[in-house]
Please model this.
Amino acid sequence: MTRKISLTRYLVEEQRVDGAIPADLRLLLEVVARACKGIALAVNKGPLGGVLGTAESENVQGEIQKKLDIIANEVLIEANEWGGHLAAMASEEMEGIYVVPHRYPKGEYLLLFDPLDGSSNIDVNVSIGTIFSVLVKPEGAGVSEQDFLQAGSKQVAAGYCVYGPQTTLVLTVGDGVAMFTLDREHGSFVLTQEDVHIPVDTKEFSINMSNMRHWDVPVIRYIEECLAGKEGPRGKDFNMRWVASMVADVHRILTRGGVFMYPWDRRDPDKPGKLRLMYEANPMAWLIEQAGGAATDGRRRILDIKPEQLHQRVAVMLGSKNEVERITAYHAPAG
Ligand code: AHG
Ligand code: MN
Ligand code: MN
Model:
């Protein structure tokens, strides 16, 4: 009989055998996983749970919040505030940081999350998810927003949970990428793939083509060459997929390769991009690199960017290594 490896056992072994994570980080990740189970339940209930629709409020980015954006944010905060493993949290849905209340013990970690990614897909029953990233609080008394402004290369854990036909938790603690599928009968995440590896080449790209007229020259060049297919400079036909939930698009890329882009564009030229560096780009970039892929903003490695603001945005190109290197080369001054 093949024995099932639960997330709990995987984390215990990461701690004990590989020494990859301390006990407190293990607890933190278990709590995040439990919160994701709670969010998955709410997502699955849909209209039966009254969780669909708009909440009539705006987040700090000026986006209308969905009910599930707020529910998921609350689930993550309530699950994580009392365990003693965290100093503070930051979320795409909250303007400032959330410091662990005085009534609870404090730990050395900082947790960042996009509680509900793919909000436009909630009401139409398409895959959505939760993205998270863990940093260590710098030495010193108290905790401030400044403590969060660390490059993605400093992350000690990152992952996402995708709520699709299956609920799948994908995790890295810097020791490769592992995937866990939620077993609903047992209520636990079970290891279903280890050592995830992205093929270096691909014939599949992922971009919102409706923005093409607003893109910059290197992105237009790359996509036009893909569209030219076999007869064009790439000498092969490409396929296109765009779910509009970054979790689902990244999950596909981790599963079978591909390249994902949300580039800077002229619609809002002062913004460097649409996606958020701390809640979306950094955790996904680390997962992709851990699986042998690459992630840049067109010019720089995402994980090297030193954040200046909590809600900073960034252009994102990630996935199969050779494709990301090609797009990045097209952005170089001589490219
Ligand atoms: P969020 O729902 O957290 O605001 O993120 C949505 C993001 C990302 O998941 C997706 O790739 C992208 O926005 C979709 O944008 P478009 O609607 O512009 O295609
Ligand atoms: Mn998002
Ligand atoms: Mn979101």
Remarks:
- The chain is about 30% helix and 25% strand.
- The first strand starts at residue 54 and ends at 58.
- The domain at 204-331 is CATH 3.40.190.80 (D-Maltodextrin-Binding Protein; domain 2).
